[in-house]
Design brief:
This protein is mostly helical and about 260 residues long. The protein has 3 domains: about 5-50, Wheat Germ Agglutinin (Isolectin 2), domain 1; about 80-120, no CATH class; about 140-265, no CATH class. The chain has helices at about 35-50, 50-65, 65-80, 80-95, 95-105, 110-120, 125-135, 140-150, 155-170, 170-185, 195-205, 245-250, 255-265; strands at about 5-10, 15, 20-25, 30-35, 220-225, 240-245. The strands form 3 sheets. Strands 1-2 form a two-stranded antiparallel ribbon. The chain is elongated and about 95 Å long. It starts with 5 loop residues before the first strand and ends with a helix.
């Protein structure tokens, strides 16, 4: 490299390649007198020195130009939908574990639990319909997830199974067989599944296996067909829920909307 391709920085006094200097067409060599490293150092130093001043300026600018900034963001999102979607997808893939940890911590907050519980109570029919539609459209995906969950959580499933048997005082297999037999007798739709598969289905759909699906407080003692079998209800995982003795006996053979209306009164 010849001498013309180098120059001395006016600040650090070190001779460096021209490529180490920012472009400046007004100078003899077409480069600035200070190298990039010195420029960055003094720029950062000034930024730190005027931190509060800059923050106040940006705050005032945002307050005075809210509509302008909002419109610019909206236009950018419209013009770069695919780019933003790809960037978001990549970020979620690269930070999957950290996002899951933060999400779990957020959902464990008492105020969030209470808000979610209140929403479920006020939008029960809407939520059930949305879940039903999702299960229909994503059947293969749910089955694959359930299979993977069963392989990775065998001990957890056995623990739930043992808790249910101890509390109910009767074999869960007998209870499922009875419901299946009653559905067959009436010609309703029947699906074969084990108790372990039912547990996986509940967990995958955020149904607590140890608590009553209706009151959310009492321990599980019964299985309940959400749409009663004698009202045309099927014996499928989608129609079977955990219930306490009080809620199950109170509901009896009533349709859920009628029974829930009576409970609210």
């Amino acid at each position: 490299m010849n001498e013309s391709s180098k120059r001395k920085c006016a600040k650090c006094k070190i001779e460096k390649d021209l490529i180490e200097f920012c472009e400046d067409k007004g100078n003899k060599h077409g480069r600035k007198y200070q190298c990039k490293a010195c420029n960055k150092f003094y720029r950062d130093q000034n930024r730190e020195k005027n931190k509060e001043k800059n923050r106040e300026y940006h705050k005032r600018y945002h307050q005075e130009n809210k509509d302008k900034i909002r419109e610019r963001k909206r236009r950018y999102h419209q013009e770069n939908k695919d780019k933003i979607r790809e960037r978001t997808r990549r970020y979620h893939q690269e930070n999957k574990e950290e996002l899951a940890r933060k999400g779990k911590l957020y959902r464990e907050r008492p105020e969030v639990k209470e808000r979610r519980k209140l929403y479920r109570e006020e939008n029960k029919d809407k939520t059930n319909e949305r879940l039903k539609l999702y299960r229909q459209e994503n059947k293969d995906k749910i089955n694959e997830y359930a299979k993977l969950y069963r392989q990775e959580n065998k001990d957890k499933i056995k623990e739930y199974q043992g808790l249910y048997v101890r509390r109910a005082g009767v074999s869960h297999t007998k209870r499922l067989s009875l419901g299946k037999w009653r559905a067959k007798q009436l010609g309703n739709r029947v699906e074969h599944f084990t108790y372990e598969q039912l547990i996986e289905h509940w967990i995958a759909n955020e149904v607590e296996p140890e608590k009553c699906f209706y009151c959310k407080e009492a321990d599980v003692q019964h299985f309940d067909h959400y749409i009663p079998i004698d009202k045309g209800g099927s014996h499928t995982k989608e129609n079977v829920f955990p219930a306490c003795a009080f809620c199950n006996n109170s509901k009896g053979h009533k349709l859920p909307e009628i029974w829930l209306a009576e409970q609210q009164k």
